[in-house]
Design goal:
This protein is α/β, with parallel strands linked by helices. It folds into two domains: 2-173, Rossmann fold (3-Layer(aba) Sandwich), CATH 3.40.50.620; 186-275, Pantoate--beta-alanine Ligase, Chain: A,domain 2 (2-Layer Sandwich), CATH 3.30.1300. It is built from ten helices and nine strands. The strands form two sheets. The chain has a six-stranded parallel β-sheet with strand order 1-4-3-2-5-6, sandwiched between helices. Strands 7-8-9 form a three-stranded antiparallel β-sheet. Helix 6 packs across helix 7 and helix 9 runs antiparallel to helix 10 (220-232). The longest helix is centred in the middle third of the chain and has 16 residues, at 124-139. Bound molecules: adenosine monophosphate. Adenosine monophosphate is lined by residues 29-30, 36-37, 39-40, 146-147, 149-150, 173, 175-176, 183-186. Residues 29-30, 36-37, 39-40, 146-147, 149-150, 173, 175-176, 183-186 line the site of adenosine monophosphate (AMP).
Length: 282
């Protein structure tokens, strides 16, 4: 596996691969890689001739009071995971490489980024779309892999690709969980043992809500309140949002008559965690 940090080096390698007729799969990450990231890289490995993984903690998607400076980083471990998962190229640029001067061009999908996570993280998805757009232009992948774990991000990236005619196919990958149900996240590293236990209420309440839907409940407010009560029963946890939204528009639904995304975010201490499920069996 090659590892580079300069855009010029990536472009040379990609040019070489393209001239050989190789298809390219791409996984964008912020590093501190775990089995969730690894599942994306492994799927990319199965479906493409060459696989590129980027590791870049993107400052433009963090708000002023968020955890950019203390976001966990471990590039040697990341290298190891990429190698094990069969990546061909690790691209780990510095902030100055991706944003060498005052970046004036941004990609903003407006209202798609305003609710759910966007409500408590203003500007977050503008930063995400901008960096993913830049990475797509640098790497020019045929297929790019994104986790269902970040469901809003996935929906927004799909719309960005459609609206801006990026020549890449977006592949959605299932959420990878710990055996007890907690969705894997680099931010789980912030949790104390007690907080880690308390955080389980997120996946558990969503799982229970899924069962209510399977039993036939179709009133979004009933489901929302059900999840809210469960989360409120855990004193170490504060809910940020609980929403039932249309899978494409991300607009809240009242009566469940079409496929929906049930998404929630909680705070455990200062750590913000997200989880969701799709309900498509109407
Ligand atoms: P991040 O490093 O958090 O920006 O995540 C990079 C990619 O990995 C995104 O497409 C995430 O949705 C995906 N990802 C993160 N955690 C998981 C997980 N537990 N299961 C599946 N995909 C994940």
């Amino acid at each position: 596996m090659q590892s580079v940090s300069k855009i010029k080096e990536v472009r040379e390698i990609i040019k070489d691969w393209k001239s050989g007729g190789f298809s390219i799969g791409f996984v964008a990450t912020m590093g501190y890689l775990h089995a969730g990231h690894k599942s994306l890289i492994e799927l990319a490995r199965q479906q493409n001739d060459r696989v590129v993984v980027s590791v870049f903690v993107n400052p433009t998607q963090f708000g002023p009071n968020e955890d950019f400076a203390k976001y966990p980083r471990d590039i040697e471990h990341d290298w190891q995971i990429c190698q094990e998962a069969g990546a061909d190229l690790l691209f780990a640029p510095a902030v100055t490489e991706m944003y060498p001067d005052n970046n004036l061009a941004y990609i903003d999908l407006k209202e798609l980024g305003d609710n759910l996570c966007g409500a408590s993280r203003p500007g977050h998805f503008r930063g995400v779309c901008t960096v993913v757009g830049k990475l797509f232009n640098i790497i020019t992948p045929d297929q790019a892999y994104f986790g269902q774990k970040d469901a809003q991000q996935l929906a927004i990236i799909k719309k960005m690709v459609k609206d801006l005619n990026f020549a890449v196919k977006i592949i959605a990958c299932p959420i990878v969980r710990e055996p007890d149900g907690l969705a894997l996240s680099s931010r789980n590293a912030y949790l104390s043992t007690q907080q880690r236990q308390a955080a389980l209420i997120l996946s558990q309440s969503l799982q229970a809500a899924q069962e209510l839907l399977l039993k036939g409940e179709r009133d979004a407010q009933v489901i929302r309140e059900f999840i809210s009560e469960q989360i409120a029963s855990e004193p170490l946890v504060k809910s940020d949002y609980i929403e039932l939204v249309d899978t494409l528009t991300l607009k809240p639904v009242k009566n469940i008559t079409a496929p929906i995304l049930v998404a929630a975010a909680i705070y455990v201490g200062k750590t913000r965690l997200i989880d969701n499920f799709l309900f498509e069996e109407i």
